[in-house]
Design goal:
single chain, alpha/beta, Rossmann fold, eight-stranded mixed sheet, four-stranded parallel sheet
Length: 347
């Protein structure tokens, strides 16, 4: 390892609260120019790093994020992959977990850190959480082991002193600095006076693996949640949609649904038509276990796949990714049950 060589980090600003500063004349919040990043975050000068930046023009509100923009991020990383040791993506918080999950599948063969972060308050506001999030994300993206390999060679979210696997995260608070949680997977690192890495959880580095990005995603999918009193005619109409290819089916508890003949019939008809249906619990923690109760067994009989402990964001983007590869339906169903990027607990 050449200790004299400074690590290179690329910051990609897509948009979001973190990139805003207050106009001293009008008082309005405006996106600041990342060419002057160091002027706004002078602490960056203390890093012994080569830091470059790219920015979406115009910036994207995270509510407007979509698969074509995910592909744009993937392309930016792919184009610059050999030039940089790590990547920090600045992103609005509302859909950050969706983007992180999507990138974990689209950046197939990733062996460098890609860390998404943002803030609840603009970086130009006095009490902003953005500076700490940005600085810690950069430090972790640049971190290397003694052999020169990256400490965290995967897609992550850093927020409020926690580094989390991107496809295990969900936004849990609209107004707390502690906005994200990783309900079924421990944090990869915590930032206190020192950064403590949970190295046994971090996905292993393999120098032989090469980045092979995928760009196609299918959006012919819905997220469908059960609730007491749900109406048969509405469910049947949704499940019989001709353009529909996949359904994230949010059920009760450990993957349970009402014991109603019409529901089982509608689900069975949908799977027999080639639609992929994945069972995800509505609970914030825990896993789908369809063999536990009769109300879950009926779903297995209908051809529904267990999503185990995937987040809704991971299940959705994983299905979009697999359907986008135009694989046979049986292969999509098989791969939905397989851990591809750390999105499912292997237990």
């Amino acid at each position: 390892m050449n200790n004299e060589k400074r690590a290179s980090i690329l910051i990609i600003y897509t948009g979001g609260t973190i990139g805003m500063i207050r106009n001293s004349v009008t008082g309005a919040l405006e996106s600041f120019n990342f060419d002057h990043l160091v002027r706004h975050v002078p602490e960056l000068r203390q890093f012994n790093l080569n830091i470059s930046s790219r920015a979406f023009s115009p910036p994207i509100d995270s509510s407007d994020m979509n698969p074509s923009l995910w592909s744009r991020i993937v392309e930016m990383i792919h184009t610059n992959y050999d030039k940089f040791d790590g990547f920090v993506i600045l992103h609005g918080t509302d859909t950050m977990a969706f983007t992180a999950s999507a990138l974990s599948f689209m950046l197939e063969g990733l062996m460098k850190p890609v860390i998404l972060t943002g803030s609840q308050l603009p970086i130009g506001v006095l009490r902003t959480d953005g500076k700490e999030n940005l600085l810690a994300a950069i430090e972790m993206a640049a971190a290397k082991n003694d052999d020169g390999s990256p400490v965290v060679p995967e897609v992550c979210i850093y927020f409020h002193q926690k580094l989390m696997r991107g496809n295990r995260c969900t936004k849990t608070s609209a107004d707390s600095f502690n906005a994200f949680s990783s309900p079924n997977c421990p944090c990869l690192a915590t930032a206190g006076m020192e950064i403590q890495y949970n190295r046994h959880i971090i996905r292993p580095y393999d120098a032989q693996v090469k980045l092979a990005p995928k760009y196609k995603m299918s959006s012919d999918i819905i997220i469908f949640s059960l609730f007491p009193g749900i109406q048969p005619n509405i469910v049947k109409k949704i499940l019989s949609g001709k353009e529909l290819k996949g359904i994230i089916f949010r059920t009760f508890g450990a993957g349970n649904a009402p014991q109603a003949h019409w529901l089982v019939e509608a689900l069975t008809n949908a799977t027999s038509e080639g639609k992929v249906i994945v069972n995800i619990t509505q609970c914030s923690t825990g896993s789908v276990k369809m063999r536990l109760y009769e109300t879950g067994l009926q779903l297995l009989d209908a051809g529904i796949i267990s999503g185990r402990d995937m987040t809704v964001e991971a299940a959705l983007t994983k299905m979009m990714f697999l359907l986008g590869q135009e694989l046979p339906v049986d292969e999509v169903r098989k791969l939905m049950k397989k851990d591809l990027a750390g999105e499912i607990s292997c237990k």
